[in-house]
Amino acid sequence: MRDQGTSLTQYLSDGVRQGSGLEADLATLIGEIAAVCKTLSYAIRAGGLEGVLGTAGTENVQGETQQKLDVFANEAMLHSLERSEHLAGMASEEMTDIYPVSAARGRYLLIFDPLDGSSNIDVNVSVGTIFSVLRTPTAAAELSVKDFLRPGREQVCAGYALYGPSTMLVLTTGNGVDAFTLDPRVGEYILTHPRRQIPADTREFAINMSNQRFWDPPVLRYIRECLEGRQGPRGKDFNMRWVASMVAEVHRVLSRGGVFMYPYDCREPKRPGRLRLMYEANPMAMIVEQAGGVASTGYERMLDVQPTDLHQRIPVILGSRSEVVQVTSYHAETAAEVAR
Ligand code: AHG
Ligand code: MN
Ligand code: MN
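A: This is the predicted complex of the input protein with AHG.
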C-alpha cells in the first residue's frame, strides 16, 4: 500500500481494503480534494499566460488584499467540492462565513487555505493549498460555526499541495505522513516519499527577522542564541531560510528538518500572530506531529488549542523536536518568572 511508485488512487483504495482505518468515504473525499489541487496546479503553472496573476482588487475577512489566484482557488475548491456527498460544510480563509453543503449531509467538514503564500504568486515562487478535515458532529441539527471550532487533535485528515518546481501532495490520516508527486505526463499523483520523518535535530531556522522588534523575550533569546552560533550557548552554527509560503517552509522541514516560527508579536494586540489556527496551524501541526516533529504555540501543544473564532490567529513554532523543545522551554521559563 505504501510502496514508492503507488498511485494515489491505488493507495486510497488499498488503504480502505486493508482495514488500516481509512474510511471509504474519507478516501473518496481525499481523492476529490486532490483533483481540485491538480486543477489549481495547472492554472498556477500557466501563470501569466492565462491572466491569473495580479490583484483581484478585493479584501478578505482578514482585511488582506486578495490576489486573483486567491479568489480563483477558493472558488475552485467550493464549486468542485460542494457536490461531494461526503461533506456537510466548508470554511475558508477567504470567506467570512461557513459554507454549508446543502445537497447531502456528509460526514465531514472541510477547512482550507485555498492559496497559501499569496505574496509569492506574482514573483513565481512556490505557493500551496492547505486543508483539514473534521467529522461532522452527529448531534448538530443545522450546521453552525461551533461545529467547526474543535481542537486540531480531532482532525481526521490534514494535507497540503505544494505548487513548486514539481507539484506535491502531502497527506496524513493519522497514520504517518506520505508525500506524492504529480506526474504531469499522466495527471496522476505518485507516492514518491512514503512515511516522512522529520529529523529530531537541526541547524536551520525559519523566521521573518524583520519582525524582531515585536517579539517576546523567549523568541528573542532563542534566535539570539542561534545567531551566536558555535561561540554561543548552543555551541553550533545555524542556517536561516524564509520563503514566506508556509507550505514551502513546512515542506522543507518535512524533507530535511528545521524549525519554522511565526511567533507572537505585538504589532497588533488583537492579533496574537500572523498565521491562522484553523486554516494553517492545525493542519500543519497534525502533519508535523505525524512525522515525529512538534508543533506548539510556545506555551501549548497546537493540537490542544480550543478555537474560539473561525479566523483566529495564533503563534506557531513547529518542526524538529529538539529545537521546538528548546524554544518552548524558554517560554516555560518566562511563564514561571511571570508567575513569581
Ligand atoms: P496567505 O498567503 O494564505 O495569507 O499566507 C501567508 C502566510 C504564510 O504562508 C507565510 O508563512 C507568511 O504568511 C508570510 O508572512 P510575511 O509576509 O509576514 O513574511
Ligand atoms: Mn496561508
Ligand atoms: Mn491564503
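The pocket of manganese (II) ion (ligand 2) is lined by residues 113, 116, 246, 280 (CB under 6 Å). The helical segments are 8-17, 24-46, 68-81, 145-148, 217-228, 246-256, 277-290, 321-339.
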